[in-house]
Specification:
- The protein is of the alpha/beta class.
- It has three domains: 72 residues; 256 residues, 3-Layer(aba) Sandwich (Aspartate Aminotransferase, domain 2), CATH 3.40.640.10; 98 residues, no CATH class.
- The protein has 13 helices and eleven strands.
Length: 474
């Protein structure tokens, strides 16, 4: 008898919930391994067919064949990229959101969901020092948030300066800006004014000098500052950049996708001084606010400006536009949207903001402890370690981990961990000094060489407790 795919199936439900329970209970979470897509696709041959496949066969294919080749970004040893550390509360509520078919377009359809999301957005706006009029929306990620904000910046800039749709508009960015900024500018047909930075940090004087030297500064309608660069976590000089932006009538957008979560930490909050002057601001809760993928908060100082740009006008949408309030669909280039801010709302409400502060402070303490441990190492150098101003040139590990030829990353070489300008192979730069190659003995079971001289085991305990996976152990 054909399966009724819309009828409740108790066995199927329990099977999936059991799998979810087992995943949530994993401690530690396995890292798993990369896989060959073509080989995995071959193993899926015939799984989708005209009559359907037994659910247990499909689930076992996922757990035994596919899942082991999906890297777990919430694993403790996931270190190659920016990890995730969603709380258990957020993950559980995300499952409820997915099972509730919430269409988060408007207050007409999802007033309860939007009220909860707006409570979180208000919290973030208050931490950023933005005015009571500020508001925003949750989008899929930093790239989407940057594109939506720069779309508003471009159109507002045109209106303020009396520029036509075909007129040249530009955005000032640092040489450390996230790749999505240039991509957004290309999509919007905006040109980019790249402002060189000193020690990888944009500030007001550098922006002012670039504008003064430019033959057409009037075409620069916006500037993008960063609160937490992707390569080094550096916060730009937001206050001085804001002063220059206001003097030139430019829109100030702050990309805090990576580092914006630091607003919860009192120990570093002063680095964000000037954020309160931003016209738009983004932060990715799926990076440092312990939310599951995908979740980015986009805030506007004056949401009505974004509504004028993004709100879609059609006869079938008239009913959602009654009244003066804006809807989530009015503030970005989407219409259909998932209520992706709800898992963060639930986790914040359950765990409390103090738990978030403790977790983020612990992350910072762990980074500082790691930098101190790297300092005396013979085989590893600390390329970018910051003190009060988060400066690339003030590394605790000493000058050997610092270059002056651009962004630095550590790459293993035959001589030592070698900082390379821009992450490319090249000669030693700046004040980096190569050290003799360490001695290596047999290879380990995973094929990596083991060092003959084992690290000292004493005094390895961190002075501050390691960062938990999420608030309250979540």
């Amino acid at each position: 008898m054909p399966r009724d795919m819309h009828a409740h199936d108790e066995r199927l439900t329990r099977m999936v919930l059991t799998a979810m329970h087992d995943r949530l209970a994993m401690d530690p979470v396995p890292l798993d391994l990369p896989g060959d897509v073509a080989a995995l696709q071959a193993r899926l041959d015939g799984l989708i067919n005209a009559e359907g496949t037994d659910p247990h066969v499909v689930m076992s294919t996922w757990t035994d064949v596919l899942a082991p080749h999906v890297m777990s970004s919430d694993a403790a040893n996931f270190l190659a990229f920016i990890p995730a550390a969603p709380t258990k509360a957020a993950l559980l509520f995300d499952m409820l959101v997915s099972g509730s078919s919430i269409q988060g377009i408007s207050a007409l359809e999802a007033a309860g969901a939007i009220a909860a999301e707006n409570q979180v957005l208000r919290l973030l706006a208050d931490l950023a020092g933005m005015p009571a009029t500020a508001g925003g929306v949750f989008v899929s990620g930093g790239s989407a948030g940057n594109l939506a904000a720069l779309t508003v910046a471009r159109d507002v800039g045109r209106q303020r300066r009396g520029l036509g749709r075909g007129s040249l508009t530009r955005v000032a960015v640092s040489d450390q800006a996230h790749s999505s900024i240039r991509n957004a500018a290309s999509i919007l047909d905006m040109e980019v004014l790249v402002v060189p930075t000193v020690d990888h940090r944009l500030d007001g004087p550098a922006l002012a000098a670039a504008l003064a030297a430019d033959p057409d500064p009037g075409s620069v309608v916006a500037v993008v500052a960063t609160s937490g660069t992707t390569n080094a976590g550096i916060i730009d000089g937001l206050a001085s950049i804001g002063e220059v932006a206001r003097a030139h009538g430019m829109w100030l957008h702050v990309d805090g996708a990576y580092g914006g979560g630091g607003l919860f930490a009192r120990s570093v909050r002063h680095h964000y001084a000037g954020l309160e002057h931003a016209d738009s601001f983004i932060v990715d809760p799926h990076k440092w606010l312990f939310a599951p993928y995908d979740c980015a908060a986009l805030l506007y100082r004056e949401p009505h400006l974004a509504k004028a740009v993004h709100a879609q006008d059609a006869s079938y949408l008239d009913v959602i536009h009654h009244g003066g309030e804006w809807n989530p669909s009015d503030l970005a280039y989407h219409l259909t949207r998932r209520a992706r801010g709800l898992p963060l709302w639930f986790s914040l409400a359950v765990n409390g903001t103090k738990a978030y502060t403790r977790a983020i402070e612990a992350s910072i303490d762990l980074a500082r402890w790691t930098a101190r441990r790297i300092g005396p190492s013979r085989t590893c150098g600390c390329c970018t370690s910051r003190r009060s101003r988060w400066s690339c040139s003030s590394g605790w590990a000493g000058a050997r981990g610092t270059t002056t030829a651009g962004p630095t990353r550590c790459w293993p070489t035959r001589r030592r961990w070698s900082p390379r300008p821009g992450g490319r192979a090249g000669p030693w730069a700046g004040s980096c000094t190569p050290t003799p190659e360490p001695t290596w003995s047999r290879r380990s079971s995973r094929g990596w060489p083991e060092r003959a001289e084992r690290p000292i085991r004493g005094a390895m305990a961190p002075t501050a407790r390691p960062a938990p996976r999420g608030p309250a152990g979540g």
